Structures are given as C-alpha cells and as structure tokens.
C-alpha cells in the first residue's frame, strides 16, 4: 500500500487533516475526521489496485542512504522546532514551521527519486507554513493557524498521492497497450 510513496503521502495528509479539524468541535469535527479517514483509505486502496506491482519497489543502497539522511535531518529539525517553540511560549508556530521544513525536504527528495514533480508539494507546503505564520502575525487565533496550515498541507499531500496514482497507473496502461 505504500507503492510509490502513496501510503506515506496519504497518511501524512491525514495527520495534517486532523490538525486542521482541531479548529472545530462537536459533530462538525467528527464528520471531518471521518471524511479525512475515507480519503486516506481511498487513496491507499487506489494505489493497491491501480499501481503495478513494480511501483515503489526497493531502491539502490545509495539512494536509500540519501533518503535516510534527508529524513533524519528533517526529523531533527522538527524536534528542534518543537522544543524551541515550546520553550519560547509559541507552540502555535510549530505547525507552520514544520510545514516549511517538510516542504523543503521534498526538494532533495526530488533529486533522489528523480521526480521533479516533488517540487510541487515542496512549494505548496512552504506556502502552507508561510500562510500560517501570516495568520499568526495578523493576530489570528491559534485555531485559524492550525486550520490554514493543516488544510493546505493535507490537500497538498493528498493531491500528490492522487497525482501519483493516476500518473503511474496511466503510464502503466500506456506501456501495456504498446
């Protein structure tokens, strides 16, 4: 189910979606959580059904090493952001700054995976983070920061997952027809 990264994109999209739904309460939030889970499940099932068995197979050791280095750095930065923001009394800035770090981590991944289209979520996640910071600077409520950052980030990652499923599945169909 994690073919071509779709599972990771779908699950992390759900995480951002859950952050966005924290701006709401009651029945509205419950409905939004159910919708987010349904979207995630649909993307993972689509990847399982539509992507060829070879999609997302193991990659060479040098690429795997570079991937691990990029992700380790990303997680170290996320931990540093959480600690610094918590100690500074501005935990509301954790999601926007994390979105920026996650977005930037897609830039070297685009080279590692030879997938220039990974620049799209890179830009959109940085925009999500910058938008959250802008809401905070405009004295917007913490809920609005979470809604903006979480919503844009979730839609970005889910959109990338959908783009991956449709693009890889379409290419596989085209190759099978030749």
How would you describe this structure in keywords?
178 residues; mainly alpha; 6 helices; globular
Explain the layout of strands and helices.
Elements: H1 6-21, H2 26-50, H3 61-88, H4 94-112, H5 119-137, H6 142-177
Helix pairs in contact: 1-2, 1-6, 2-6, 3-4, 4-5, 5-6
Describe the structure.
This protein is an all-alpha fold. Helix content is 80%, strand content 0%. The longest helix is centred in the C-terminal third of the chain and has 36 residues, at 142-177. The protein is globular. The mean pLDDT is 92.
Q: Quick recap of the structure?
A:
By secondary structure, the protein is mainly α. Helix content is 80%, strand content 0%.
The main β sheet shows up as: none
Number of helix segments? 6
Classification by helices and strands:
mainly alpha
Q: How much of the polypeptide forms β-strand, as a percent range?
A: under 5%
- SSE ordering: HHHHHH
Percent helix? over 70%
How many β-strand runs? 0
Bulk shape: globular
Distance between the termini: 27 Å
Which residue ranges are poorly predicted, with pLDDT under 50 across at least 5 consecutive positions? none
Mean pLDDT: 92
Radius of gyration: 17 Å
């Amino acid at each position: 189910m994690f073919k071509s990264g779709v599972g990771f994109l779908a699950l992390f999209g759900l995480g951002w979606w859950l952050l966005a739904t924290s701006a709401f309460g009651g029945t509205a939030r419950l409905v939004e959580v159910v919708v987010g889970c349904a979207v995630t499940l649909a993307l993972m099932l689509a990847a399982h059904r539509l992507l060829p068995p070879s999609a997302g197979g193991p990659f060479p050791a040098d690429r795997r090493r570079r991937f691990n280095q990029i992700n380790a750095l990303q997680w170290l930065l996320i931990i540093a952001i959480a600690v610094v923001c918590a100690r500074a009394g501005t935990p509301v800035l954790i999601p926007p700054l994390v979105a920026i770090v996650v977005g930037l981590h897609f830039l070297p991944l685009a080279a590692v995976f030879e997938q220039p289209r990974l620049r799209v979520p890179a830009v959109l996640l940085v925009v999500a983070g910058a938008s959250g910071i802008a809401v905070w600077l405009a004295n917007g409520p913490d809920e609005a920061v979470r809604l903006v950052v979480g919503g844009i980030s979730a839609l970005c990652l889910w959109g990338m997952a959908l783009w991956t499923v449709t693009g890889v599945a379409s290419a596989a169909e085209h190759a099978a027809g030749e």
